[in-house]
Each structure stands twice: as structure tokens, then as C-alpha cells.
Amino acid sequence: MGGAAHLVPAALVDGFVHPALAAGAALAAVPLVIHLLNRQRHRPLPWAAMRFVLAAYRKTRRRVELENLLLLLLRMAAVAALALAVARPFTGTKSPLAGLTESRRDLALVLDASASTAYGGETETTFERIVGRARELVGDLDGGRGDRVRLIEAAAWPRLLAWTDPAEALAVLDLLDEPTHEPLDLAAALGEVQRLAEEEAAGTGRSALEVRLLCDLQRHSFLDVDAPADGGDRDPTAAEATDDPRLTDVLDALEELGVTVAVEDLGPALPRPPNLGVVSVVTAGPIAGPGAPGELRVGLRNFGDETRGGVRVALIVDGDRRPSRTVTVPGRGQAEVLFPLVFGDTGDHAVTAVVEGDRLAFDDRRVAIVRVPEPVRVLVLNGGPARELERDAAGYLMAVLTPLDEDGPGRFRPPAPFVAREESPRVLEDEELDLALFDVIWAVDVDGLAVEAVRRIEERVASGATLIAGMGPRVDLEHWNARAFRADGSGLLPAELSRTVSARSTEGSYYRVSEFDATHPILQFFADERWRSFLTEVPVHDFVAVRPAPNARVLARLDDEGAHPLLVERAFDRGRVLLWTTSFDASWTRLPVLAPQAFIPLVHELTRRGGDLRPPPLHVTPGADVSAEVDGFPRGVQLVRPDGTRLTLEGEAVELGGDRWHLPPVVGAQTERAGLYGLACESGAEVLFAVEPDATEGDLERLAPGELEALHPAFELHTPRTDREGESSGAIRRGELWRWLAGACLFALVAEALWAGWIGRRRRSA
User: Fold this and answer.
1) pLDDT digits over 535-558, tens only?
2) Which are the contacts of 426, defined by CB distance < 8 A and separation ≥ 6?
3) For the chain, domain boundaries
């Protein structure tokens, strides 16, 4: 408040809402200064009749001085009262002026609209009770006396629904009929309250904002995510990893402002209400293709204490309901149901798992998008063909990509995941060869490529294909560096080729993989302990030492002294380039001969993952923004909601190259409900995406009343009965005096005008 607070005795007022404006009371001295200056303006001159005037003046001097003084004081009082009224002084209940104050209320009403509040009771849901209680609280406010209400809907982020008049808030409450499918971010909601409290405090350091949180007291919503479960010290780096405020920090700030959060529990009566939900729908491994058998795993979780037996689980695939299965789910436990799946077509398919309904419906179903890929089209450039298979690295690749079966050579049993074609590197000089027909290009032991061939490969990779360059004894390192590597990382190769490194003896000495990125899709297969040795025990006798570009990523390293890379990856515009620093023939590695069980999945993963660079099927949380891509120019893009309604998206599509287009974005306000969504174009192209609710929202375990206030001093548990008995809600009860001061200013102005008029009239008549 600075020095402005001292313009009024501290025993009378506690402070000012606008302390800087209180300094305007000093303007009350202006009439006094004008009066003093006017006294020095005239120079007295003696004249003969002056003695008669002086005699009359001496008789009325005291009365005139009193009249002028009263007039001066009225003018000064009007200015001072106006300045103080604008500064809005306030005082507490212990002040002698407390009886003159008005108790205007400033209420911040936070409504828990998370998915858990949809839990149904005998007659109404928790959310309906929350809205009903909000109507009661807003109905107690009087807009005529200046009461204000900020109505905040709290879920994944706070939404300010109303911010001034109580009548407006009541109208908004009439429109709230169901909660969102989002989790409650309590820190974000109270962070909005903190911002309002700081504005209301206006630099005084104390706020009179009254805060009410109407919720179901769901336990995990009140626990600070940064607090370790064992009660130890919080990791400071965890808070720095995100810009989101921590709940404890927000509560500390509110406590410093003198604001208490009055929490009203409107949830179910049980401390752990029963609920069963679908928490996951995933495939057991990738689907190879149309007609290939697959398996779907549906995960269930029982959030209640009692075992649920005979739970019926149904599966809906592309709108067709499949036979259901039953399962028993233990109390506070999980269960998994397996469904066999066979898809007849490629593309994205919608799969919905449904359990029998209970009192919380939003988690009784969950949607997943399953992609059935088309065969990967592969071009193998064989730089060193040989009659002996052991000397032909490309021959090994073709044997893995196109194995023999009873129908003849070069074919998979249907469905075929790959369609491979072997050619000489010189085929790239043929302009009739359309590289757009291939998703993956393998360059195997190729000594070098012509400038035009490199240019064509760069164009194809940039538009969304993958180049896998394998080294070998015929590779000309200087030639490849000159044509395909640039020091700034913009070249085709992800690393500069340095030299060939050989083991001392091919019989007793070799290198192995010392480390690899098990999180990368290409190498995830080997993350399983059962298959890890298939990669880490592969003997490598020769390899090419490389220096990765700054924008490259090393996926696997060898155990030599320099820990040189074995597999390097780099994005190239919309495509990808992989560098395999050894070969697949027997002179450099015995991988195809000694470990075919590792060689086959490695080649399959390299080729399959490289052949599908499209974004994976979209699974987002409620309220998330969505961006998608389609082939061909999209016209008339519409968002298809779970209830079947359609909304035309605004914005322009953006061309990505290779006849691939980025659709207009879907904003978070359009994905608030869980379920299956679609983006449909007039051309027939369609993108499916699933909005999946947070599985933890189904855990309805509640805080005990004593636990709430133990979490933080800023929390205070309240009930409607407490309010009726007149107990404090924890907010600072202060009254403002501005109306009385405004009245005093008006009274002083009227009195000054009347008094000045009466004085002038009397003096004229005299």
C-alpha cells in the first residue's frame, strides 16, 4: 500500500483496493493554496472614506472569516472524499468503522467437471449435485450490491464460464448437463484462482476472494504428482521438466494471499466406490496383413474391493459385434481377455471393447485403431552378385524377403508382407524406372552411384521412402562420401565413411553389439530378454568406421575400442536413411549363417518399419488437438464425432510432397468426448482416430475428511450446514467504505454550493 495507507488512520482502515489512488487525497490542499494565493493578490491603498469601511469591517470580520473557513473546508472535504472513494478503503470487523461497511462478496466457484463426477447415485450423478450446489451458492449473491462470481469449470484445463454478474452465472449453470471425459488438473484450476486472487489483491498482498471447490474428493486429483510415494524429497528436476504449476506451489501462493480453498465434498458416500473399466485395447504384436491371424488383448481393471465374476466383454470390429466372453476380475485387480482377429482388408480398423454398464459409464468402453499394412514394396540394389550364396549379401536379403513355398519361388504364403525386386545399381540410370513404386530401397555392397542416381534416390526418400545402405568389401568409401555425404548433415548418408576395421582372426576374434536403442521400433523386438542375444551375440568380423552427422542417431554400437556405430539413422525430409556399417555376406559377418533366427527378424524389422513412414494410428486424450495426413488433395474435410454428427473443418490443407497433404487441425474443444472420430474428405479419403479417456479416472477412491486439511493449510473442508451456521469460509471478511465516502463527497459539494449561494446573497443584500 505504500504511504497511501497512512492518509487514513490504520486503526480505522486495513488498506485500499487501489492504494496508489489514495494519494489523490492530497489534492484537498488545492483550495487552501488558492485561498492563500488570493490573499496576496491585492495591494492596499489608503483613501479618505476608508475609516468608515474599516469600522464596519471590524464589526463583521470574525463572522466573515468563519463563513469563508467553512466554505474552504467543504471544498477540501469534497476533494478528499472523492479521492478516498476512488481508492476504495476497506476495513475488518474489528475496526470502529465496521458498522458503516458493506459486505460485498467476491466468489470464485470451481466446479469439478472431470470424468469421475459422472458416477451415478440412486437419483442423480455427482456432477448434478455439484451443479445444484453451485446454483445455491450463486443464488445467495446479490448483483445489486456489487457481488461478483467467477465460475470455473475444472477438468484437464480450467474454463472460465462466467466472471461478473451472478445472473449470468446462473444462466450458464442451466446449460451444464454432463461432465467432460477429462481428468481433473487441480493445480491448473487453482492456478486460475491464484491469478484472480492476485488481481483482486491489487498489490496489497491480501485478497478477499472467497474460493469454493465443489468436487467428488477423488484421491489422486489432490495428490501432488511431484511428491514421491515414499514421502522422500521431491526431485527438483521433475518440476523443471514441465511448465505446469505444482499443486503445492499454487496452494502456497494462495496461502500468502490469505485465501483459503473451501472444499465441498459432493461425491458418493463410500470411501472406495465400486467401478469396473476397460483400461487398454492393444494387439499382441503387429498385424502382418489382410488374412493374417492376430490377437487382441482387452485389459480390465476392478477399482472396487469386491471380486467381480462373470463379467461379459464384447468386441465391436468396424461396427460388427463379435461374440462376447466372460471373465472374473479380482477386487483391486486386473484381468485380460484375448480375442482372435483376422482382417480382410488393409487400412485402419476401429475396434471397440465393451463391458456391462455400471454407475460410471464413460470407462465401460474403449476404442482402438488397428492398422493392417499393405505389402512393403522393396527394391534391392545388388552391388556384388555371386554364384555362392555366402558371398552374395543381396541374395541373403532376397531369401528372407521372398522365401520359397509350395506355390513356387519368390512368394510368401498369403498374406505377403513384402514385395521385393532385385536389380543392378545401373537400373537407376533408366528413366523409365519409377522409384515411386518402392517404399524401401536397399543398397547392398554397392561400390558407388552416379550423380543422377543419387539425385533420384534423394528425391524419392525426401517424398517419404527409406534408403538402407549396407556396407561390404566392394564399397568405395571415398566415392560414397563425395556423392552422398555433406559435413552439415544435409547429404543422403547419415555418417561420413572413414575406414574399414577388421578383426585379427576370422576364426577366433570378432566384434559384437555392446548396446542398442531398445525403444526404437526397429530394435524393439530385441528388447525382450528371450531375443536380446540374437542381436548382441552376432559375430561381426569387418565393418566400416563412420563419423555420424550431427543430426543422425546411433541405434546400435559395437564393442570395439572405439565403440563404433553398427546402425545409424537420420531423417531425410519426409523419409529416412539407415546405414548398416557391416555386410550380410560371410566374409564380413556370420550373421545369416550362424544366427538366422536373429537375421530374419532384423531384416524384417528394418524393412517393415522403413516401409511405413506414415504417422501411426492416432490415440489421443480428451481435449487434445489432432493433426492428420491423407493421400491426394482433400476437399470438404469434415469431423465425424462419436455420435455421428459432422462438423466442417476450417482452414486450408498443406501439401507435404509426394501427393501427401496435411489436413486442417482439429482443436481440443472438438475432442472433449471419448470415442471413435473420423476425418472424412469428399474424395473418399478417411482418417480414423480414437479419443481414449485416462484410465486412472475410473479409480474413485476418495480422500478421508481428515486427510484433506492435512495436505495443506490452504484447504478447508466445508459443508452447506457450516455456511448456514454462519461460520467463516476461510476468506478474509472485509467491508468497503467507498459508498459512504462517495456520499460524503456529494454532501460536501451540495453543502458548499448552498453555503456559497447563501453567503453571496446575504452579502449583496447587506
Assistant:
1) 888 788 899 999 999 999 999 999
2) none
3) 2-99+738-765, 104-258+704-732, 276-373, 376-611, 618-691
Q: Is 231 left (phi over 0), alpha (psi -120 to 50) or beta?
A: left
Q: Are 434 and 460 in contact (CB under 8 A)?
A: no
Which residues does 608 contact at the CB level (< 8 Å), separation at least 6?
286, 373, 376, 417, 418
Query: What torsion do the CA atoms of 233, 238, 239, 241 make, to the nearest 10 degrees?
Result: 170
pLDDT in tens, 380-412: 999 888 777 667 888 888 888 886 554 444 444
Cα Dmax for the chain = 146
Number of H helices, E strands in the chain: 17, 34
May I ask the CATH class of domain 276-373? mainly beta
Angstrom distance (rounded) from CA 333 to CA 475 = 58
Cβ-based burial of 157 (10 A; exposed 0-12, middle 13-18, buried ≥19): middle
Whether the bond between 617 and the residue before it is cis, its omega within 30 degrees of 0, is no
444, containing H or E segment: strand 440-444
The CATH class that applies to domain 376-611 reads alpha beta
Residue 469's CB: how many other CB atoms inside 10 A? 27
- Percent of the chain scoring above 90 in pLDDT: 43
CATH class of 618-691: mainly beta
Common-topology check for domains 376-611 and 618-691: no
676: left (phi over 0), alpha (psi -120 to 50) or beta: beta
- Please report, to the nearest 10 degrees, the dihedral formed by the alpha carbons of residues 263, 265, 270, 272 taken in order: -50
What's the CATH class of domain 104-258+704-732?
Answer: alpha beta
What pTM did the predictor assign?
0.72
